[in-house]
Amino acid sequence: MQGEILGIGFLLLVLITIFKGVRQVPQGYKWVVQRLGKYHQTLTPGLKLIIPYVDNVSYKVTTKDIVLDIPSQEVITLDNVVILANAVAYINIVSPERAVYGVEDYELAIRTLVQTSLRSIVGEMKLDDALSSRDEIKAKLKQSISDDIADWGITLKTVEIQDINPSGTMQQAMEEQAAAERQRRATVTRADGEKTAAILQADGRLEASRRDAKAKVVLAEGTREALEKVTQAIGDQELPAMYLLGEKYVDALRNISESGNSKIVIMPADIPAAVRGIMNNTK
Questions:
Q1: pTM, whole model, 2 decimals?
Q2: DSSP string, 63-121
């Protein structure tokens, strides 16, 4: 009976020993093995053998790309403007033993390194450059931290700037500035329009005045020619001249009487005498 118990115990010990000595590493992981507390080897995916009770799997590290979200932080630009910036980094662990033994917490270390580098890069740029130069910031950021994390056996695949925006107070100031600029442009455009309209109106009045002057000259020339022809036709005869002047005089009186502002029309008693008086005054 006692022998059977010993046999069962020995069998269990053998099974436990085999279980501890045979390890199956899944795809996408690497296991770091320590022997008596010291780094011994790194197990790649597949069925692996280690020495039971001597070797120990201390770390299980993924070989897949890791996405690190970099928290948002306040950054002061070269022109003393506060902006909010955050990023995301994609890393891959190439040497698990260097990652676990080279730094206490590689994820925290990389986040802190990205934040520090981002503050340094943006701090050397003005606000307008920082808002419009994401690709430049990304390139500088990747270059600045790639060498540092390479010492930890980690490769930086890429880093992206998620958001880079002015603070709430600065956004309000920028909106007010943009509104003022739009108002200024509208005022300038309206003033230019009014100026152009005034110039066009003045040009129109000038052209109309020139045409009126030419019309008066033409009318005066026509009147002069008509008077010369009438004078030549009448000669020294008084009666035709009296008739023409009397006809003009009657027309003028008729126009006065037809006017809406005219209330009383005074007619001379002797129209021929009036005409003779006009002719005498014109001589």
A1: 0.57
A2: -S-EEEEEEEEEEE-TTS-EEEEEEEEEEEES-HHHHHHH-S-HHHHHHHHHHHHHHHH
